[in-house]
Amino acid sequence: MTADLAQVGATCPGWRAWRTRGGLAARKGGTPPGVQARGATLCELLAAIAAAEVSSEPGGPAPGPNYRAILTALDGAAGPLTSRAVSDASGLALSTTVHSLGVLCAWGVTERHRDGRTWLYRRCDVLADEIKTAAVAWDGPAEQTA
Question: What's the rounded Cα separation, in Å, for the pair 46 and 92?
Fold first, then answer.
């Protein structure tokens, strides 16, 4: 099980995990003391870490309704979108959309690239892919054999 705890650090850089009576807990280095993610299994812990990574502050609440509307619009798109297209799809004002897209890019949840004079935005699923890979690699065999 020590290898599972080491896997958290390898999958989610900067995070430190440990055992508790109720399962597993983790926190990101350089943040205030205290638990920021909990889970009974490694898979649950990695999912909690992913949720903490996209929250507005370490260990804070889930993203607000504006961010969720933008992420929903980006998830439903066939390809990268301009900020105007995201604004139209989400129903938010353009200024709110542009600000929120900048925040989401800073969090690493979305990414943008230039296309001429415009920015194109898309959802960045790197962390989600890493968590799925780790969950299958570490929890999958144990569930199949049990």
Answer: 31
Residue type, 69: A
d(CA 36, CA 26): 6
- What pLDDT does 29 receive? 76
Q: What is the pLDDT of residue 126?
A: 53
Q: Of all helices (H) and strands (E), which one includes residue 18? A: strand 15-20
Q: Residue 68 corresponds to which amino acid?
A: R
Architecture of domain 65-123: Orthogonal Bundle (1.10)
C-alpha 141/C-alpha 37 separation (Å) is 23
pLDDT per residue as tens digits for the range 14-65: 888 888 887 888 888 766 666 678 888 888 888 888 777 765 444 444 567 8
Delimiting residues of CATH 1.10.10.10 domain(s) in the chain = 65-123
Cross-sheet strand order for the sheet of 37-39:
15-20, 23-28, 37-39
Q: Which two tokens stand for residue 142?
A: 């144990």
> Across the strands, what pairs with 24?
19, 39
- Using the 8-state DSSP alphabet, how is residue 78 labeled? S
